[in-house]
Design a protein that fits this description.
Blueprint: E1 14-16, E2 21-22, H1 25-34, H2 40-43, H3 45-51, H4 61-76, E3 81-91, E4 101-113, E5 120-130, E6 136-147
Antiparallel strand pairs: 1-4, 2-4, 3-6, 4-5, 5-6
Amino acid sequence: MAGVYYEELEPGRVFQHAIRRTLTEMDNVLYSALTHNPAALHLDEEYCRTQTEFGQRIVNSAFTLGLVVGISVGDTTLGTTIGNLGFEEVRFPAPLFHGDTLHAETEVISRRESSSRPTAGIVVFEHRGFNQKDVLVARIRRTGLMLKRPAA
């Protein structure tokens, strides 16, 4: 099992995720189309070149959110999570563009035992995504319900 149990998720622990992903035009356009997001910021190169401060299309932030969290799963929660309880805070301090390469890290912020499930605990993660220049492009606080290590 790739993920880690509640007991291993000590506050302050940081996971540097090895997976990196270069974002393509297809990723951005397909995600925007699949989610019915017609924003010109993601789809219209001419509009972005002439009408925005970015000068080019930016990657859909919901895709960025999903990708940063997805990159973290193999190292943190794969097979050891009961479920995602929610997102407390999501920030995108800088945009991603086609051709940027995303990498991520996850820090365990806090944890507590579940009051209703003796075999589980609640963990708050902070996922951070960076571009190839190590510029912070996403910061996400997420709460998960995590399995405790099974009794021997």
